[in-house]
Design goal:
This protein has 8 helices and 15 strands. By secondary structure, the protein is an alpha+beta fold. The strands form 2 sheets. Strands 7, 8, 9, 10, 11, 12, 13, 14 and 15 form a 9-stranded mixed sheet that branches. A 6-stranded antiparallel sheet has the order 2-1-6-5-3-4. The chain is globular.
């Protein structure tokens, strides 16, 4: 089901700038028995995205109320919150644009996530690489064309997910998640200041590691670095954390830190 600015809807104007230009941002939330999980984190990421795009913020009290109405009562489910700049404007110009449009949709919890959490997932490597867009990096803006190309490449090769690199061959993420790996006593994750999306679960893992005094290194790493890992896992807001058992032919054990992170991310 869909809601537009708090009202049930099945359509939106063709003049909406997200439809016309991808002009907006979104986030995907986990819900538990109709309750929003980690809403303050999602709100903060949306605020950061809207600030980067110079889009006026909506009334967050109203948005939270609309999300609560839309949430499914099932033990686990999901919501997508999408905010566009609004309707109108001449060409790319954002002058003379209406107020932001807030759309919300609900969906069932992906059934295969439970299997991934318990047993892990095997990754390939996307042949599509990500460009460098420092003004948008880290944000989940509505222009997802690179991710569509990545997913098409993975589908063509029969892969459920894959590691994604940038044009300089640095590890960035998977097609649906952020990625972490441990080597010895150090936890590694890519720097996302040029490409990629900085997810809510990623932020929570970094906060957990700081509080647990786990050494973390955020940087630019090529493929050889992760292939020498002792354990590898991926994170997103719905999945929590899932072990990565293999990247192409290189296999990894499901490690103790992965299981600790999974326990921490359980709603």
């Amino acid at each position: 089901m869909f809601w537009l600015n708090g009202q049930p809807a099945d359509s939106i104007s063709l003049l909406d700038r997200s439809f016309q230009y991808g002009d907006g941002g979104f986030t995907t939330l986990l819900t538990e028995h109709g309750k929003l999980c980690q809403w303050p984190y999602h709100k903060q990421r949306m605020q950061a995205c809207l600030a980067a795009l110079a889009i006026a913020e909506p009334d967050w009290t109203l948005v939270e109320r609309w999300l609560a109405v839309a949430a499914k009562p099932e033990p686990l489910a999901g919501l997508k919150l999408h905010i566009s700049r609004g309707e109108g404007g001449r060409g790319y110009s954002s002058t003379q644009v209406s107020a932001a449009n807030v759309t919300i949709s609900d969906f069932a919890y992906p059934p295969h996530y439970r299997q991934w959490q318990a047993q892990g997932i095997d990754l390939g490597i996307s042949q599509v690489t990500l460009g460098l867009t420092p003004s948008l990096a880290g944000h989940k803006h509505n222009n997802r064309l690179e991710q569509i190309l990545v997913k098409a490449d993975l589908d063509k090769h029969g892969l459920v997910d894959g590691l994604v690199l940038d044009i300089n061959a640095n590890i960035i993420e998977t097609s649906i998640a952020n990625v972490f790996w441990r080597r010895g006593e150090v936890l590694y994750t890519p720097q996302l200041d040029m490409s990629g999306v900085a997810g809510v679960a990623r932020r929570r893992v970094l906060e957990f590691a700081q509080n647990a005094e786990i050494v973390v290194k955020i940087g630019r790493f090529d493929l050889s670095h992760i292939l020498e890992a002792d354990e590898v896992f991926m994170t997103n807001a719905l999945l929590g954390a899932a072990p990565i058992r293999a990247i192409e032919s290189q296999t990894f054990p499901i490690g103790p830190l992965t299981r600790r992170i999974q326990e921490m991310l359980v709603p």
